[in-house]
Amino acid sequence: MLTADIAPPATSHAARSAYGRVALETRVAAASPHGLVALLYERLARLLADARAGAESGDTARRLAATERAIAIVEGLDATLDHERGGTVATALSDVYALVRSRLVAGAAPGLAEAETSIREIGAAWASIASAGARA
């Protein structure tokens, strides 16, 4: 039969990954500065969820890979805080980042879930700011 000789179209991981990179690059190129911060929070929340899933399933490699990437984002966000101009907001964010780092290093699922919730809430605020700026 002919259909047995024809392979179905391949949807490789590499092709999906390349498409994802292009989609992300497009979003980054079109984003405002507030939108870029919102994208970082979105990525950080996904990494925290991935680290939590790894912790829950006992997949240490998955947890550690997500933790490493998440810490890099947290460090970058923390390093860009302007404590002189940001005042108490910058201090509060720095405290949140310290808490997120500690939850990532501890690697326990409940702490990672708590960190993910906090980051999603802050990320939603940044997305709202970015959206309001786009409408203005």
Structure description:
Helix 3 runs antiparallel to helix 4 (60-79), helix 3 (33-57) runs antiparallel to helix 6 (109-135) and helix 5 (83-106) packs antiparallel against helix 6 (109-135). The longest helix has 27 residues, at 109-135. The protein contains six helices and no strands. Helices cover 87% and strands 0% of the residues. 21% of the residues are buried. The chain is an all-alpha fold and 136 residues long. The protein has one domain: Flagellar protein FliS (Four Helix Bundle (Hemerythrin (Met), subunit A)), CATH 1.20.120.
Distance between the termini: 61 Å
- According to CATH, what is the class? Mainly Alpha
Mass-distribution shape: globular
Number of strands: 0
| Nearest-integer average pLDDT | 84
> Given the structure, what is the number of helices?
6
What is the N-to-C succession of helices and strands? HHHHHH
Beta percentage is: under 5%
CATH fold-level topology: Four Helix Bundle (Hemerythrin (Met), subunit A)
CA-based gyration radius: 19 Å
- Largest sheet data: none
The CATH architecture term is Up-down Bundle
Number of domains as seen in the coordinates:
1
The low-confidence runs, each spanning 5 or more residues with pLDDT under 50, are: 26-30
